[in-house]
Amino acid sequence: MSSAARRDLSGIPTSRAGSIWLLKYPGLAAGAFETPAPPSSSEGLPTPFYSHNDIGLNYVEYGEMQVLLSTGYRYVHRSRQLSIYWGAIPHRIERLGAPVTRMYWLSLPLGIYLRWSLPAAITEALIRGRVFIEDDEEGCPDLLRMRCWREDLEAGPPEAEPIVLLEVEARLRGDNAPGRPVPFYLLRHGKVVILSL
Fold it and tell me: Which residues contact 17 (CB under 8 A, 6 or more apart)?
């Protein structure tokens, strides 16, 4: 399985099916982008609908964006929030609500997600188009995770991908949720980093 980190969506294979752009990520992928808001909320937006058969994790470091799903569901993704969704539901950014929005993203292949056997109720809700959004905790551990995962997939050693997968699985299982007695460990280039939550 190949991994990739991207600063934007350039280089991601795309095809167009009507008004929907289909993205094909090369396995586990992560990246970040920063987008200035257009002078008016409608200028330059909305973006086209995008679809990809992956579980998406997005984290807005600063700024905000309003997202529309093809189901008609709208949500505002605010600063210091992590969202988890199934990318096959066509989605697009409708509006940017700040002068600049910076977002980190991670695309997790659906097959890997399904092998983890996470609670059926969560998986069923994702497949039906539910978007889970959580506020980050004090100290921004989700921001740190997203930055580290991007860096590791971009420039880390070959063993970085399985480590990132273990960490993503632990995060989705809630094993590192605040209030749990177990600290969150990150292995970074041969060094263990302990996050205080």
Answer: none
**CA 26/CA 3 separation, integer angstroms:** 6
Range of the domain at 45: 4-154
Name, in order, each residue with C-beta under 8 angstroms of 179's C-beta and a sequence gap of 6 or more: none
Q: CA torsion 51→120→2→192, rounded to 10°? A: 120
Cross-strand bridge partners of residue 109: 54
Q: CATH number of the domain that 49 lies in?
A: 2.60.120.10
pLDDT tens digits along 7-35? 345 555 556 556 787 777 778 999 998 88
∠ Cα 52 53 57 (to 5°): 75
pTM: 0.78
My answer on whether omega of the bond before 46 falls inside 30° of 0, hence cis, is yes
- Whole-angstrom CA distances from 34 to 29, 106, 129 are 17, 15, 26
171 lies in some domain: no
